[in-house]
Amino acid sequence: MLAIKSSSLGPEHLETLKIRNNLALALNGHGKCAEAEQEHRIVSAVRTRILGPDHPDTLRSRGNLASALFGQDRHAEAEKEFRAALAAEERVLGSEHPSALNNRSNLSAVLGTQGKYAEAEKEDRMVLAIRERILRPGHSDIFISCYNLAQNLERQKKQGEALQFARRALEGMMKALGDGHSYTQNAKAMVNRLEKP
User: Which one of 3.20.20.140, 1.10.357.120, 3.60.10.10, 1.25.40.10 gives the CATH number of domain 118-197?
Assistant: First the structure.
């Protein structure tokens, strides 16, 4: 599809870039993060030149690039890219935009991976507070945020509070996603782990 669109519309046409971006997302999803990084860099550079650095598509490309770096365990680079993307998205789209919230959540994940648990906890609390305010009660993203926060609290040995958020995550995910969903299973494992004396 990319070859067809590139040939018929040109390599820098917005439709071609959209397909290239989707290819990069698929590569990243299959663990081919280095290939995904290459594609995201191309898309990001062309979108920046054509659409400008503040266009929502360009901003999404930066977050996607950061995810590809994170997938390669290039944590410091990923953190820098997530921070830059988040700052731009908050300036252009606002701090409550779903894309900004996703980047803040991803930033928390990369911080946690680097052992910066207190910073990660702060980011998780912010994402959870905003999602609780703007999303309908029972939305799965609220419970994913609860799980992420519980994870960072557990890493800091704050077992009691971690268990509270893990239970909330599990209860909500059971209703929103069902018992068989991987997120629900992860929350269940966390609750079981935290409940052990």
Answer: 1.25.40.10
Beta-carbon contacts of 182 under 8 Å, excluding residues fewer than 6 positions away, are none
pTM over 0.85: yes
With tokens 């992420």, the residue in question is: 148
At 95, list the tokens. 């701090």
pLDDT in tens, 139-172: 999 999 999 999 999 999 999 999 999 999 999 9
Question: Whose CA is closest to 40, among 56, 26, 18, 21?
Answer: 21
Q: ∠ at Cα 151 (149, 153), nearest 5°?
A: 70
Q: Report the CATH number of the 1-114 domain.
A: 1.25.40.10
- For 55-107, how does the pLDDT look when each residue is reduced to its tens digit (9 = 90+)? 999 999 999 999 999 999 999 999 999 999 999 999 999 999 999 999 999 99
